[in-house]
Amino acid sequence: MKARDRLRIAMQKSGRLTEPALELLNRCGLSFRQSRDKLFCFGEGEPVDLLLVRDDDIPGLIAQGVCDLGIVGRNVLNEFQLTAGREIAPLAELRPLGFGRCRLSIAVPQELDYHGPQQLEGQRIATSYPGLLGEWLRTHGVAAGVVTLTGSVEIAPKLGTADAICDLVQSGGTLVANQLREAEVLLESEAVLTGPLTLPVDERGDMLELLLKRLDGVIQVRESRLLLLQTSRHTLEAVTRLLPGGPQPTLLQVAGQPDQLMLQALCAGEVSWRQLEEIKKAGAREMFVLPVEKMLA
Ligand code: PRT
Ligand code: ZN
Prior knowledge:
Helix content: 25-40%
Oligomer: single chain
Number of helices: 9
Number of strands: 16
Order of helices and strands: EHEEEHEHEEEHEHEHEEHEHEEHE
Mean pLDDT: 93
Bound molecules: phosphoribosyl ATP, zinc ion
Low-confidence stretches: none
Number of domains: 3
Shape: flat
């Protein structure tokens, strides 16, 4: 393999992961000049280039050494690990990236009274993920037929080519539209950064280390929220107990109201309406949840 001094990242050319992956890389300070054929994008500031391909090709391109890194769904990565031959070098999940979330699930006809894996014994299950499904069936000691399809898996039961399916689910709308319901979750998935188990020990390795550090910073900030609220001193303890995880909150005195405090807390993740309503019930008022743009500790 010819030595390279620029890092090459494979990502989806056009699909669900394209926009969020590009945005994430931009936030890490990477920008790209798009080439005419749009397959290869030259990195402008840093020595990092992009290869835009079908998501299914990404793990193979890294395993072959054509690319150093890839952004791909955990579902695709894990399926590759299970189905690629032993001669292929295994890949590592370097970072979960927090977008493209979905789950790989087994779904059965709505009218079926499902109560456990044994019910799938002898059934035909249609899927594009024969590796992951096969592994799950083995773990649960179920002998079922795996019908491998490349698309439109959800219509297989209606067509009579399968009794159940194993496919990606996000909102569940596709299942409902096809009179199916989720019976088992095999894998919780999201986009991940993947690369070889052993990282290159040249300039690419240094760039990779820098990129991982920036990614960690970006991901941490993206998931942080600043929660602001007012509370009286006597409800402070109850309110504080309900705050989502993060460092200790900061308290400020409200001018002219000795009993009132303004509380400021950095939260490690989303703050849901449910959580806000609970905190309000405990005595908080004037609540704000703000996104954090940059953070330098
Ligand atoms: O052309 P290329 O091969 O690159 O694209 P693709 O069609 O294989 O991939 P794409 O863009 O559809 O998905 C890329 C990745 O996004 C997947 O590998 C997952 O990791 C992730 N992802 C997240 C999803 C979904 N959510 C999703 N809902 N991938 C597919 N779906 C499909 C699912 O297959 C089913 O048909 O959407 C339907 C279910 O959605 P709900 O919302 O109705 O439940
Ligand atoms: Zn694909």
